[in-house]
């Protein structure tokens, strides 16, 4: 009688086997809840809990100008945060990858170390900086820039400062990873051939770092769109964003399905805006992706 031994899995199957638990986890705790969320926004039940059918009334309810304005405010917040983070992160990532190589581990440590502390501590620290008797007002008064303390807290300025502070590392790391792979001789050759720094940036560096730029941009843009804690705490509950509306409905006693419907509407519009921004980035940055 022949005895057949179990064959070893080929090398092409090993990555799948290793990644299978993570895929199962993602399906169970990410895609399945999203599916239930979408279903709860279109299913209709009677007061006794019996199923009555499908309805799009809850979705149509959030297509009114009031809620579309809230979604637009979140688009502006997310896009502004992503652009500011990009403008700050690109030179910072260039410094880490190309200039400060000898001490890059120290600089990367200083960039990441704030994430070792509680998020609320970061917000309360910024309270001391931005309040009327805080560091920023005292500094500006000491320099003679202002005569009276300014109101920084509970303003769009405070929200944006905190957003950029918190999301900046998510932009720096992908850009740093791409810039580190660039052959610096290409930049030197471009400058030696008479190109300005602006031309070198647009025609050499940006095409070579397009992949990292897009990854960082959407790592900042997408979560910024649904941010709740920062606008709520730094804005003083004076401005409404998507995260605020979702929290108000989801945490309500009998408004959970409305929160699901608004989340579905906002998510669809977010995906459409992300696709549009992806197309814009592809058109603005020339060349193929090399990095």
Task: Describe the protein's architecture and organization.
This protein has 291 residues and is mainly α. It has one domain: MetI-like fold. Helices cover 69% and strands 2% of the residues. Helix 12 packs antiparallel against helix 13. 24% of the residues are buried. The model has no long low-confidence stretch (mean pLDDT 86).
Describe this structure in a few short sentences.
With 291 residues, the protein is mostly helical.
> Total helix count?
13
Helix content: 55-70%
Distance between the termini: 56 Å
Strand order of the largest sheet: 1-2
Contiguous uncertain segments of 5+ residues: none
Q: What structural class do you assign from the helix and strand content?
A: mainly alpha
State the CATH class.
Answer: Mainly Alpha
Taken together, the total number of domains comes to 1
- Major sheet summary line: 2 strands, antiparallel
Instruction: Provide the β-strand percentage band.
Output: under 5%
Mean pLDDT: 86
The name of the CATH architecture is Orthogonal Bundle
Q: Which labels suit this protein?
A:
mainly alpha; 2% strand; 69% helix; 291 residues; 13 helices; MetI-like fold
Map the helices and strands.
Blueprint: H1 14-40, E1 43-45, E2 51-54, H2 57-61, H3 65-99, H4 104-112, H5 119-130, H6 135-142, H7 156-180, H8 184-192, H9 197-208, H10 210-225, H11 229-234, H12 242-250, H13 256-284
Antiparallel strand pairs: 1-2
């Amino acid at each position: 009688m022949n005895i057949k031994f179990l064959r070893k899995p080929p090398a092409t199957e090993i990555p799948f086997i290793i990644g299978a638990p993570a895929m199962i986890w993602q399906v169970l705790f990410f895609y399945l809840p999203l599916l239930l969320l979408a279903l709860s926004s279109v299913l209709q039940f009677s007061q006794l809990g019996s199923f009555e059918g499908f309805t799009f009334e809850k979705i149509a309810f959030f297509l009114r100008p009031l809620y579309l304005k809230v979604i637009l405010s979140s688009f502006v917040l997310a896009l502004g945060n992503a652009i500011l983070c990009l403008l700050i992160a690109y030179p910072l990532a260039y410094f880490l990858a190309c200039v400060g190589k000898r001490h890059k581990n120290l600089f990367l440590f200083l960039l990441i170390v704030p994430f070792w502390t509680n998020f609320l501590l970061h917000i309360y620290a910024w309270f001391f900086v931005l309040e009327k008797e805080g560091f920023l007002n005292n500094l500006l008064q000491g320099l003679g820039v202002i005569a009276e303390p300014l109101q920084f807290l509970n303003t769009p300025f405070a929200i944006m400062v905190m957003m950029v502070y918190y999301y900046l590392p998510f932009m720096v790391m992908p850009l740093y990873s791409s810039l580190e792979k660039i052959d610096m001789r290409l930049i030197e050759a471009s400058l030696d051939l008479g190109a300005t720094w602006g031309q070198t940036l647009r025609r050499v560096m940006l095409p070579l770092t397009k992949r990292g730029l897009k990854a960082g941009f959407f790592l900042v843009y997408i979560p910024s769109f649904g941010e709740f804690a920062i606008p709520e705490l730094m804005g003083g509950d004076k401005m409404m964003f998507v995260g605020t509306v979702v929290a108000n409905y989801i945490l309500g006693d009998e408004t959970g399905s409305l929160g699901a419907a608004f989340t579905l509407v906002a998510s669809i519009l977010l995906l459409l805006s992300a696709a549009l921004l992806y197309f814009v980035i592809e058109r603005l940055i020339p060349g193929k992706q090399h990095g």
